[in-house]
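Record pair follows.
FIRST:
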Amino acid sequence: MKTEFDREEFFNLCWEKSILWFCKNYLISYPEFKNLCKKYQIPLPPNGYWMKRKFGKEINKPKLPEAYNDTGKIHLIFRTKENSKKLKTAGKLKAIDSNSKSYDLEVPNRLPKNPDPIIQEMLSVNPKKHPVVNNIWDYTKRYDYGRISVSASKKPYKRALCFLNTFIKVMKTRGHYFLFCYERAYIVIEGIEIAIRMRERSKRLYETEKSGYRSSKLVPIGLLSMITGEYSNKKEWQETPTKSLAEKLPLIITYLEKTAKEERIWKVESAKRRKERAIQEKKEEERKKMQKEEIKKLRIIKQKSDLWHESNKLRTFLKACDENENLTEEMKELVTFGFKKVDWLDPLKFSKDELFDDLDPHRLLEELK
């Protein structure tokens, strides 16, 4: 195994060995390895490459880009027990906030004598139970007591408790708190609830049965992962053989606080938009209401205009009839009757008719057409 490579050697090795192999054998983390390849413009195998290689499928390996001008060597350090331990325990992990307050993030190998009350609840043989009404769990209610879900075997479970005890202690010191809802746990940051839980990672093993069918099963591998958030906001922090979850604690805390702050800003802006939308909807509602009232008035004007024109037409006809000397007696009676009814139809005459008092002149005219 070499510790010094030229660019082409390192490129070929990247397509022969996985990133996990580099992390196990050299003192380099996954992000550091990715940044190194980015710096030297070294293409890495795509997703599915190792599976294709395992089954002997055709692989299209790209050419090494020639644009890079630096001819310097790539140096890596062998990973040994000594330098790995020094790397993990060299000083206590610290996180510093904007007020320059430091918080001890070192995760011990054993739980202290007096762990946090949440951890005590998780260790309790008789845990507190949330009330159930009519055999129904109300997931809208939150309680200040409960357990954080940890799905792991015995040894990883103990490590998870140690990790959670430090995590809870630091988050409470930073002014955050925890709520519980039956089998769910939430950390509350700036009023924003973020679900948290832990599990033991597992790998899928395939085996061929006597019947010839291929089956698989999940086998725990002793590594922990922490899951924050739910649904589209879910993020999983995984422990690796070279980097424990305790080393990722500063990143987890920073991510949670940043996520909560962003969601808080989004909620404030969303509430502002809802308020503005409600004001606009109210204005639009008032505008439509005024519009309906004015349309109603216009309809009345149109009806009265129609009545006025119709009454004038009838009046002109009746005057012409009245001036005719050859009218019969029956027609003269109709003309006299017509003058009375035309005055009732005319909206400008305001004439009353006891017999037609309950009738609508406009509707009557529509029926007469």
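SECOND:
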Amino acid sequence: MKRIAILRTATLFSLLIVLFNSCTKELTPIGLGLLEPIDLLKLGYTDTVQIRAYSLSEDSVYTRNLSYAQVGSMYDPIFGKTSASLYSQIFITTSRLRFGTSPVFDSAFLYMPYKSSYGDTLSNMTFRIYRLTEDIVDSLHSYSNTELNYDISNPLGELTFQPKPHDSAYYGGKTQAPMLRIPINSTFGNYIMGAEDTTYLNNNAEFVKFFKGVYIVAEPQNMPGKGCIINFSLPSDYSRIQMFYHNTEDTLNYSFAFSTGCSRFQNYDHNGFAEAIPILKQQLEGNTELGKDFLFAQGLSGAKIKIEFPYLSKWFDNDKIIVNDAQLILGNGSVSDVFTNPTSVTLRGVGEAGTSSPYPIIDETDDAAAFDGYYNSKSNTYRFRITRYIQQVLTGKVNSNGLHLIIPSASYVGSRLVLNGTSSPQSDLKLYIHYTKIQ
């Protein structure tokens, strides 16, 4: 009996050695570490599911009336140039606005409270403000590829500065929260105070017919590694244009608001990825084979990654299985202190027309914490648990068109991601599946 026990122990040890050595690469704690070694004898296991992946240009994103505003320009050495600009109405803050007898413009400032930034904040940035000459129509002007006409010959203001999104500002005789303050010239004040028909100043419905809004844009960056996209708390109680003026009786000031009622939208421009590195540019132009080396995703309507499992639906044609655990592991291929990778990414199903589903896949819906998608800085990876999705593919309950990996909140998040491709020497792009065959 003792000899039989010894043989059983030796056999168990040998099987474990075979199972571990049969893996194409050593599993991280995210893989085998989730199960006790003895469990590997009860389950089927594979890490050799074929994956096809490549980068795609993202469609325009919906940017109407976002909670935050993005303005800036950056030149990522991998992705090239990206610009973000804002079109927005402004409102008067009292009804029946009047400036008195013989009003004279003195000065004005545009205030935009900082929220965050992405990129190199040590770079010099130049912002310009223009008056719109075309109405913002919500039904027409909602997406990031939309543009409007503006009075390019008569800018309302300009400022060259280094962004300080975390430093308090001093103005108005006291220390204020981090705020960008751009001088506004007399073109603005003279236009409004010169309104011949004062009914335009009676309410906001009339005012936006007269003053259609502003366009805020950054001068493009032309040096790789420079520039940033700044996220502003706009609209807010502190975002405004404050104008100082005097008339024959008094010295006064008046605030025009960027309020929640103002129609506004963003424009994002990646310059056709003209300055992107060749492997990225060529993927976006249709060379999907280059996804074997590296994969690219970018917010602000930049790029997303298509992930396919081309033979998965045929994998167990003659067997029925239960998927006990399926995990997709993706390795970060470019760590940057300036153009940082996102703290999380997510997956969306791909429809028949090739578009991303607006809805989460079943694993995220059932348990977002287990689904994961957050960056692990120790292993330099992202992980997704997609057990139920893989089961649905095998049973034909969902299509096998694959998944899109996207950066969440891409309508106002500018971060980018470079992943190791499906065949890169250091690739962590694998699907690990533990399963049980049903007899």
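COMMENT: Residues 23-58+276-438 form one domain.
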